[in-house]
């Protein structure tokens, strides 16, 4: 084995260094004690030279596309047949596949440049021959369709698509990719997409210039209920106008704050007010910094979206640096407004900022992004929750407008009392997003059918919260209830009874908690307590939790007092029912009530409640 290695090394040295004297030291293939090492420079290896030409070409695409084209052609000139021919083994096969794919990538970048530089006919000639040898290479076939379209040869472009589709379906059972199908549909509709006539914007690079009918106007609809933000809007207006007047810097405004505080709504409202000052268009990008399902939008994705909006379909082969340069070239000298919503970090935002003055940028995000202020000169405004009165006004407007649209005659009168509404807003944290959710709940609650659905939905949510958190943790919104409201809920939950009359609960708690009814209204609206026919009950899945909380929070003496009051009230109610029916017990037999009097159902319910109340009073008395 050793002698075979020496033989191969000797032959290699003769090939690599034909002028080297026998037995003299080799400068290229030397032995270092552990093995043989080939000492050559990078520019002496074809693969390294090809990769160097490709990287140089990519860097020149935005500003010097013809230089980039020359670099790609130099790289292709180094190919001489199939790479690594005659070298067996799996490693050689892997490298061979990589190099062949690199060859196709360089070809595709070169044809992209040729089309953008107006070399349409030359591209058609070369692509026609190349696609015949590689009929399943969709990217090449798509470039040929582009080239035919640029030359005005629509019939041949359509025929090329049909040929590609037939071959893909027959051989692979698949349709052409979305990009090629999109090209096909544009040709069928007679909507030319690519610029004609050889004109080329030096900043275009490997792109397909789109024919835009009008400047982009991508701002979402402004929210009609931007309540309680007049001061913030005026402050942002002042910040923007100062920068616009100076004309030295592009206005950069950053709105931060916790989730649901209305950052996006404020940014969109401000953008609509400023739009008239930016006639070259308004761009809007959701950077997804507040979501976890898809993750934040990547720099390349955001730039591709913005370039498309500006009329350039950039190739995926372009590196991020080239996309940034192209974006800044296209926005230079223009008056545009850019809204970057839900930003994740300064690093995500920085490549998306236009480089020249004249463009304004509004950014929103949860993070403080100190770098955006210190490095980019952004003016920052932090949003907090709304004031209590503004939160109530927001809910009233939202609910009233929705009910009027539903032709509900009640309108805002269907809302709970002002105290209940204030408490609901407090429980929801005074944040606009949570308040809009509350408004939707109150809209459903405004009708009998909607109230049943809202009760069921709230009960399910409460049950899920108990299941998820366990009985040791407070399910939402119990932990945010006021002290007296929580006490009312615990008092209701202490009795193992299907329901209790509202007036009985008021009699039980009235001495300690004035205006009990408003606390009960709040619990009903929140879906923690159900109400039907004037009778109240804690939703089933919360009963165990409220009972446990009552044992922990309320002293036995207080619980006994509540139970005794409830027992007295229920006893009096039963006696009133019997007197009303004319069947008051006289001690000579059980009282029998007739259903037709309407008292039998009431008495049965009160009797069940009385038994449960007396049993609870006895339990509490034993525990005192």
UniProtKB/TrEMBL annotation:
Superkingdom assignment: Bacteria
Does DNA-binding appear among the keywords? yes
Pfam families linked? BTAD (PF03704)
**Which residue ranges does the record assign to the OmpR/PhoB-type domain?**
1-40
Which SMART domains does the entry mention?
Answer: BTAD
Going by the UniProt record, its keywords in alphabetical order are: DNA-binding, Transcription, Transcription regulation
What biological process terms from GO does the record include?
A: phosphorelay signal transduction system; regulation of DNA-templated transcription
Q: Which GO terms describe its molecular function?
A: DNA binding
On whether Transcription regulation is a keyword of this UniProt record, the answer is yes
Per the record, DNA-binding region residues lie at 1-40
- What family is it from? Belongs to the AfsR/DnrI/RedD regulatory family.
Protein name per the record: Transcriptional activator domain-containing protein
